[in-house]
């Protein structure tokens, strides 16, 4: 199996995502955004030295101009064309840089021999939100569309900002699998700063014990930091304006929550007295 990425301005994620997959795939293809401004290229080059020919780097500037409507689909069709020219008939998994594959993918790969080029797979995805033990529950189970496919001429990405791979074959079958999971880490950016501070304090702090620092780290990463809720209308106006939050919205939300709590309390009271 091949893994294919678009990468740029993602230095925090490179090591994690590649570590999750490099041992179980034949090739890794990275389309590097040459306009990237952080240390992504240095990270990728370190992995190139480690993996040699197993890692293929394709340099291409991403079209960041807002007037270019199809920048994302252009980039994805770029690597898809490369796959068609060089890896026809090979199974390919597409990942974003801020995604990590769990260990079960190793056991799933042998199952690919039972599938055909008309089968396009949507793996399960779990979205971490804010910290390492909170996840998105807007859906009971989320499948990320059409990320695993066998390279063939019928495949294409439609023009758009969030294009989903499709096949022109009349016999195409779109399948879901939860055999393995892709973990999405984009919404835990704050955790990287916490991790950096933790390791920095471990080396330099003169007033905190290692136990205190460890407790501080776990509080932050596992949603256990001692906090309390307060009335958000108390926030300074400049903060509310910056985040485009109005007092009217905050008041309405607070009021609805209080009304819901009242309804629940009333129901529990009636249940208690068998009314």
Strand elements, count: 11
**Main sheet attributes: strand count, strand direction, barrel closure:** 5 strands, mixed
Q: Which structural class should the secondary elements be placed in?
A: alpha/beta
Tally of individual helices: 8
State the order of secondary-structure elements, H for helix, E for strand: EHEHEHEEHEEEEEEHHHH
Give the DSSP E fraction (strand runs of 2 or more residues): 15-25%
Estimate the mean pLDDT confidence: 89
Low-pLDDT segments: 260-264
| Order of strands, widest sheet | 3-2-1-4-8
What is the CA-atom radius of gyration, in angstroms? 24 Å
What is the 3D form? globular
In helices, the fraction of residues equals 25-40%
Separation, N- and C-terminal Cα atoms:
63 Å
Describe the structure.
This protein is of the alpha/beta class and 275 residues long. It has 8 helices and 11 strands. A 5-stranded mixed β-sheet has the order 3-2-1-4-8, with helices on both faces. It has a 4-stranded mixed β-sheet with strand order 5-11-6-7. Strands 9-10 form a two-stranded antiparallel sheet. Helix 1 (11-19) packs parallel to helix 2 and helix 5 runs antiparallel to helix 6. The protein is globular. The N and C termini lie far apart (63 Å).
Characteristics of this structure?
globular; 275 residues; alpha/beta; five-stranded mixed sheet; 37% helix
Brief overview:
This protein is of the alpha/beta class and 275 residues long. The chain has helices at residues 11-19, 40-51, 71-86, 105-108, 189-204, 210-221, 237-242, 247-272, and strands at residues 2-7, 27-33, 55-60, 91-96, 99-101, 119-129, 142-143, 148-150, 155-156, 166-167, 173-187.
């Amino acid at each position: 199996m091949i893994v294919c990425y678009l990468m740029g301005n993602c230095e925090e994620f490179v090591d994690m995502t590649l570590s999750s997959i490099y041992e179980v795939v034949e090739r890794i293809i990275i389309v590097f955004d040459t306009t990237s401004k952080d240390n992504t290229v240095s990270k990728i080059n370190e992995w190139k030295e480690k993996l040699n020919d197993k890692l293929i780097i394709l340099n291409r500037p991403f079209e960041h101009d807002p007037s270019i409507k199809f920048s994302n689909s252009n980039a994805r069709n770029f690597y898809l064309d490369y796959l068609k020219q060089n890896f026809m008939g090979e199974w390919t998994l597409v990942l974003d840089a801020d995604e990590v594959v769990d260990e079960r993918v190793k056991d799933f790969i042998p199952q690919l021999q039972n599938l055909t080029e008309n089968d396009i797979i949507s793996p399960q995805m779990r979205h971490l939100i804010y910290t390492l033990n909170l996840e998105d529950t807007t859906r009971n189970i989320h499948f990320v569309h059409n990320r695993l496919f066998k390279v063939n001429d019928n495949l294409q990405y439609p023009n758009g900002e969030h294009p989903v791979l499709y096949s022109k074959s009349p016999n195409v079958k779109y399948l879901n699998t939860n055999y393995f999971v892709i973990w999405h880490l984009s919404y835990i950016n704050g955790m990287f700063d916490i991790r950096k501070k933790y390791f920095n304090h471990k080396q330099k702090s003169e007033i905190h014990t290692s136990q205190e620092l460890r407790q501080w780290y776990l509080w932050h990463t596992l949603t256990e930091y001692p906090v309390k809720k307060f009335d958000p209308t108390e926030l300074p106006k400049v903060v509310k304006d910056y985040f485009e939050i109005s007092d009217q919205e905050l008041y309405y939300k607070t009021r609805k929550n209080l009304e819901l709590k009242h309804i629940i309390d009333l129901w529990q009271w009636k249940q208690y007295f068998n009314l």
